[in-house]
Amino acid sequence: MLLSATPPPGPRPAQRARLYAEAVRHRGLTPPRTHPLASVTWLGPAASNPALAHRVGGDPAHLAESARWIEAAARLPHWGRAHMPDHDLDAGWLLHHLSLALRWIGDELPEETRALLRYKLLLQGRRMYEFAVASEGGWWSSSYWQNHNWICHAGLATAGYVLGKEEWTERARDNLGTVLDLLPDDGSHAEGVVYWRYGVPFLAAHLDLLQEAEGIDWWERGGFLSRTFRYRMHQLAPGFAFNVDHGDCHDRRSGHSAGLYYRLAARYGIPEAQWLGDLVSDELLWQEAEHSGVRPGILPEAYLEYLWYDPSVPAERPTETRAFFPDLGLLAARTGWEDDATLVSFKASPGGGHKAWEASAKHRAERGWDTLDQGHHHPDSGSFVLVSQGAFLAVDEGYSNRKRAAHHNLLLVDGQGYADEDRYHVYRDIPHDRQARQRDVLLAPDRGWAHATAEIAAMYDPALGVRRLDRTLVFTPAGRLVLLDLAEAGAEREWTFLLQTDRPTEPLPGGDRLIRSGTARALVRRFAPLDARVVAETTEVEANPTSSTPELRLTRTLHTLRATTGPSAGAAFLTAIVPGAEPGPAERVGCERGWGVSFDTETVLLSPVDRRIRTAGVSADAAAVLLGGGDPAPYVVAATRLERDGRVLLDVPEPYTGRVG
């Protein structure tokens, strides 16, 4: 498709219109005559989109526009200035786009322009190739889970196929095979949604090039590509315009790629991807471009939308409301897909996810290579994001250079977050056993219960002696949230519960707090401990999201609610967060053993460690018993026995998770 500029058969009037609009978008700009300090990645699509538009429609004005940007980019002595000139993203982007432009319109360019472009691509491709060889085992050359690896190798491959440089394409192909084998089978991505949409389209482009140029079909190699749309879908906020911002996300809009959605829809027959591609291209595209301020951003992918759109694929609105991605330990649950629905996203895993953590440890031990560059993965295991009524209520920090657990909805021990944090790459060179994970995951059917327990004790400084720090999160069918945090240490510690919001929480009578964001509201009720010191303060987070533009600074102000215990060897926080303008009752359940919270028609009973629950009507050997929510049958987690109102409903030798009855 890409090399031959041949899309799937069928009409594509909307995609053609998008391509033509993008082909002329830069006509009022003067190309730079010298390299600006900022990134020049955008020069590539400024040339390739009008090149494809000319190839499609034959308009000589598009040819002239493409030649104008080709000459500007080709006359720059280096691609990239502030960070790793010729050896990183600027070079990768320009190699990809300008090589395609040469392939599509090279025969129609003026001879001088064509010769200049070909010479420049040979020069820059050689520089990129030699750097990849020389730096193997370090930085992006072998950072298999990182967008720089994917983009730079895709650029090298594109130039190699267009210029006939087999050593370039062979190296890029070998890397791509390794990447596909090592990426998580569940399709999740530890760098977060923004870097997913930035990097994964280049993986798809490389696969497209490989299949067309060499007849090698690797689309089914590994499970990542075939499942990654589902990951992206479940990180959509209700209403589809915004994304959950785990990982480095400089804003909450920059997560869409209509072109990639179309390619995944066509290859794997995913109607939801086709539907979302249409929605993005028809309605969300310009909103994201205007409000995110990201460059190049989403608009330059017009060439991918045109070439990857297959009109024969049916389109269906998403309906699935529950998902768990085990590699990243990511649980996502929502009450629906309507604009005012409620969503929670809750995660816990080793740095980069389980597969990357283990594979990179093997690379380090066997080859001495450092392959896990996860500077975009935050110290956020056990944290969650809550969206409801069209607003973000419990929030993530978004993007930071000095990453800290205190920027997330987490817990501090004696005021301290994760060991070795407060730096860009908090997972670099830490002990292998410093891992978080999820256990006891329950996903009831559509719009039902969701439950998981995050184990995060290993992430704290061993000197603190933290023996246990388990967070259990329950999302009810009605969209209420119950959190139970159980902590133990070898000495007395102060334990702090953190809640991050976009606006200050408001105190209510009786010790409750109100989260307010626009017209959206949620009640925060703390059932335990009742004697915690509660403080509301601001937390400032600053980041430079791109090393290629060193003067750029993003700042975000978080409003942090802290609840801190006195010194104790153990602590328990039991908290309910109830979204809605009229949240309804939330009461603590009297438990002889275990912990319980009841709402109007829903009851949550928990005992994630002892696995003994005893109330007036329930006796269970289980981590959780979940009652109500429109289902007459209870749900249990890790249960061997359940007795309700004197009637034995479950008695099994091995722990069972699911519906009883």
Q: What is the total tally of β strands?
A: 25
Which blocks of ≥5 consecutive residues have pLDDT under 50?
Answer: none
Q: What structural class do you assign from the helix and strand content?
A: alpha+beta
Total of DSSP H or I helical runs spanning 4+ residues = 13
Helical fraction equals: 25-40%
User: What fraction of residues sit in β-strands?
Assistant: 25-35%
> What's the arrangement of strands in the largest beta sheet?
7-8-9-10-17-14-13-12
Shape designation:
elongated
Mean pLDDT: 95
Q: How much is the radius of gyration in Å?
A: 26 Å
What does the main sheet amount to?
8 strands, antiparallel
Calculate the terminal CA-CA distance, rounded to whole Å: 52 Å
Describe the structure.
The chain is an alpha+beta fold. Helices cover 31% and strands 25% of the residues. It is built from 13 helices and 25 strands. It has an eight-stranded antiparallel β-sheet, with no helix packed on it. Strands 18, 19, 20, 21, 22, 23, 24 and 25 form an eight-stranded antiparallel β-sheet that branches. Helix 1 (13-23) packs across helix 2 (43-57), helix 4 packs parallel to helix 6 and helix 10 runs parallel beside helix 12. The longest helix has 24 residues, at 111-134. The chain is elongated.
